[in-house]
Amino acid sequence: MELLSALSLGELALSFSRVPLFPVFDLSYFIVSILYLKYEPGAVELSRRHPMASWLCAMLHCFGSYILADLLLGEPLIDYFSNNSSVLLASAIWYLIFFCPLDLFYKCVCFLPVKLIFVAMKEVVRVRKIAVGIHHAHHHYHHGWFVMIATGWVKAAPRGLEARDQ
Predict the structure, then answer these.
(1) Helix or strand run (H / E) with residue 47
(2) What is the pLDDT of residues 84-139, one digit of tens each?
(3) What is the DSSP string of 68-124?
(4) Cα maximum dimension of the chain
C-alpha cells in the first residue's frame, strides 16, 4: 500500500489530464479514424471518382461525435468545423492516406507497431472526449445525469453507433 501512496497516482493522473491534445493526440485520432474509413469497401474508388465526397466522409469520421453531441444538446451542427487547425490537420491526413505517392504514408501508419501506438493514443483521446462531453452537458443540464452520460457516451463512441451490415 505504501508503494501506491509513494507513486502519487492522483498527481500523475492530474498532470496527464493537462497534456494538450493538439497536435500529437489529435493527429493519431485522425490517422486511425481515416484508416478505418479506408478499410471500408469502396472507399478508395470513391476517393478517386469523387474526392470531395471522400473528404466529407473523412471529416464525418473525424468529427462525427462532435456533430452528434451538438445535435443532442441543441447547438449548431457545424460549430466544430470553425476549428480551422483541426479541420486542416484532418484534411492533410486524409490526403496523405488516400493520395500519397506509392501509398508510402499508408504503409508507414499501417505497420503494426506504429499502428498500435496510434490506436493507444486514440484511446487517450476517447477518454478525454468522455470527460469533455460530460462537462459540456453539465453546462446545459446541471441536474440531468442521463443527459450527461448520454453526451459523454456519444462523444466517445461514434463508430459504435453506426448501423453495420455484417
Answers:
(1) helix 43-49
(2) 899 999 999 999 999 999 999 999 999 999 999 999 888 888 888 888 888 888 88
(3) HHHHHHT--TTGGGG-HHHHHHHHHHHHHHHHSGGGHHHHHHHSHHHHHHHHHHHHH
(4) 62
